TrEMBL record:
<protein>
    <recommendedName>
        <fullName>Guanylate cyclase domain-containing protein</fullName>
    </recommendedName>
</protein>
<dbReference type="InterPro" id="IPR020503">
    <property type="entry name" value="Uncharacterised_Rv2561"/>
</dbReference>
<dbReference type="InterPro" id="IPR001054">
    <property type="entry name" value="A/G_cyclase"/>
</dbReference>
<dbReference type="Pfam" id="PF10851">
    <property type="entry name" value="DUF2652"/>
</dbReference>
<feature type="domain" description="Guanylate cyclase">
    <location>
        <begin position="29"/>
        <end position="162"/>
    </location>
</feature>
<dbReference type="InterPro" id="IPR029787">
    <property type="entry name" value="Nucleotide_cyclase"/>
</dbReference>
<dbReference type="GO" id="GO:0004016">
    <property type="term" value="F:adenylate cyclase activity"/>
</dbReference>
<dbReference type="GO" id="GO:0035556">
    <property type="term" value="P:intracellular signal transduction"/>
</dbReference>
<dbReference type="GO" id="GO:0009190">
    <property type="term" value="P:cyclic nucleotide biosynthetic process"/>
</dbReference>
Amino acid sequence: MGVLDELRAQRRAAGTASGSAADGQQPALLLIPDISGFTRFIEESGNPQAPFLVADLLEILIEANTLDLEVNEIQGDAVLFYRLGPPPTAEELVRQCRRIYLDFQNYLRLVERDTGSALAASLHELALTLKIVVHYGRVSVARIREHTKLMGRDVIVVHRLLKNNVAGSEYILLSDGYLRTQPPAELARVFAWTRLLPGSTYYEYLGETPYHYAHLSPLRLLLNAPGVDDDVPTGQGCVLKVRRALRVPAPYALRVLSNFRLRPRWMEGATAVHYDVTKAGRLGTSYKVDVFSGQIDFQTVQCLEDEDGRLTYVEKISHFRLFPNALLFCCVEAVDFDSCLLTLELRYGHVASSHRLIRFGQLRRLYRFLGRSLAQFAQLVER
C-alpha cells in the first residue's frame, strides 16, 4: 500500500465511527457565532488595538461553550463549532446561545467603560454585535494531518445561512434541519422571551432554504444584571465580592496589585508566575500563574480612574474551566492619604457544572479563595 492509499484509508476510518451510515456521514450539530460589523470596525476604526480586541472576543465565544462543542475552524470573525451525535434540546441550545451573547456583550461593555480610550470611542461609533446560526445535519469527518475537516452538503448549508434575509444584526437563526428535531410546543416555550419568526432565502444550488429566527436584542436588559445565570444557586448573580480596609495609600495598593512578580506572594495557592518581562506593565499583557496543581491564564484589560478618584484594575481570566469568561475587578478607593478600601470582585459567565451541589460547593470554595488572597495581600502591603 502506497502513502496515498494509507492517507485515504485513514480518512475513511475517521469518517466511519460507530453509529455512522454506510456513506460515512454522521449526524452533527453545527453552530456558528459570527461577529456582525467586524470588517467595518477593523477598516474604519484605524486603531492598532482593534484586531487584538476581536481576537479577545473570539476567545470569549470559545470560552462560553456549555454544550461540549468542538472548535472546527476560526474564520476571521466567526467560529465553527460542531458536536457529533444527537441534537441538544431546545432549552439547552437557547441556554448556550444566551450565554455566548451575554458574555460577548458584557466584555464589550467593559472595554467601553474606558471613556478616555480611542478604542472605546470606536466601539461606540462602530458597534459590534453577534448573530448565531444553528443547523443540524450529517457531515463527513476527515483527518488531514493534524487538522479535522468537516465536509458535506450540510456544512455548505450552515455557511450559506450566514448570508440571509433577516433584518438586523443580532439574532439566532435555526435551520429546518434543527427545528425538525424539536417539538413545536417546546420551541415556543423556550423562546417566550422573544419571538420565533419564519423566514427563507434562495441560494444557488441549494434552492429556497427555510429557517426560523429570533432577535437577541431583548437580552440587552440582562447585561451586567444580577441573576443573569439561572444556574447560580446563591441567587446573587454571577459575582463574588470580598472587601478589606488597608493601611496603605491607594496608589501603592494598585502598584502591588498590578505587579505580576508579586502575585505568588499574596494569591492563595500560587507558587510561580510566568510572563514576558519586556511586556510587563502594559495593558493587554498575558501571564500565567501556577495555582495549587493547575495553571490559570490572566490578561490585563483595563486600569481606570473615575470622577471620584476610585481606581479600578481589571484582568480577564482564561482556562478557568469551572468559571468560564471570568473577569477580576480590583477596585481601590482612597479613605485618606494613608489608607484605602480594596474590593476584589470576580464576575463569571456561569459555573460549568450540571450538578447544583457542585456549583454551590465551587462558589463557596472560590469565595474563600478570594477572602484568603485578600487577607494575604493586606499582610504583604502593610509590612
